[in-house]
Amino acid sequence: MHFLIRVVLLFCFVGSVAQAALPSDLEKEIKRYIQKSPSVNGLRVEPELLDPNITLPPCLGGTIEIGVAMGSRLWGRTTLQLRCAKAAWMINVPVNIHVFGDYVVASRYLQFGQKVEPGDIRVVEGDLSLLADDVIRSPRGAYDRILSRPLQMGAPIGLNDLKESTVIKVGDPVRLLLGGKDFEVSGEGIAQTAGMLGDMVRVRIADGQILQGKVIRAGVVKVNVE
After folding, report:
1. Which terminus of the chain has fewer Cβ atoms in its 10 Å neighbourhood, N or C?
2. What gap in Å lies between CA 134 and CA 194, rounded to an integer?
3. Cβ density class 173-202: b for 16+ within 10 Å, e for less
4. What is the Cα–Cα distance from 91 to 85, expressed in whole angstroms?
């Protein structure tokens, strides 16, 4: 199955067997087609034909449709499908779709375990198709998170480079999930130590007993009971 958009183009050909290089009007329609894709979210795109010498057969009296295979992403290297139903032909056109937009980079060397503050990062514009898919597009996605690896100045920052900062503070009420073989119960307690996701923290329960468990999400600690 293909997702197709109908593009009405009028071409003039000399003879029924004549061929023409990819017309400039069609290149503009390809760019407009890509621009409408949800994957680019209105960002500026510049498609690059990987075979600049590609030619199309005539499509006299017909229309050329632009499409991609179902599930294909209009980003980076991909293949467009040009189809003329009237003349019963379809041609695959390899393209490299450059997508330009803002993303976040380190404004200086950042150490492992450092909490990201406003002065640590800046926003630049560039070709997003050359970067990892998890690159952070807005500074708000990085603030107050902890670096899981060191970053050189100018390095793009991705979600996988960060982890949540403290999600449980000393004195916070927390929900306890106590689990063992074939059972799980819940309770309440007060955090005695602070922790991030995945950290082990101590929690005091109502009878004064101190339990230790792992932070699995904000305000929730899981305690394994043997």
Report:
1. C
2. 28
3. ebebbbeeeeeeeeeebebbebbebeeebb
4. 12
Q: What are phi and psi of 128, to 5 degrees?
A: -70, -25
Q: Where are the beta strands (DSSP E) in 107-142?
A: 121-127
**In angstroms, rounded to a whole number, what is the distance separating the alpha carbons of residues 108 and 155?**
9
Distance separating alpha carbons of residues 197 and 214, to the nearest angstrom: 8
CB 188 within 8 A of CB 205: yes
User: pTM higher than 0.85, yes or no?
Assistant: no
Q: Where are the domains of the chain?
A: 2-98, 100-163, 173-224
β-bridge mates for residue 162, sequence order: 147
For the 173-224 domain, the top CATH level (class) is: mainly beta
Distance CA 193, CA 30 (A): 57
| Residue 33 CA: distances (Å) to CA of 27, 37, 54 | 10, 7, 19
Asked whether residue 64 carries a pLDDT value surpassing 50, the answer given is: yes
* 37, two tokens: 């894709």
1-36: pLDDT as tens digits:
444 444 333 333 333 333 345 788 888 899 999 999
Which of 80, 31, 89, 79 shows the shortest CA–CA distance to 58? 89
pLDDT of residue 21: 53
Task: Show the CA angle centred on residue 208, arms to residues 203 and 212, nearest 5°.
Answer: 25
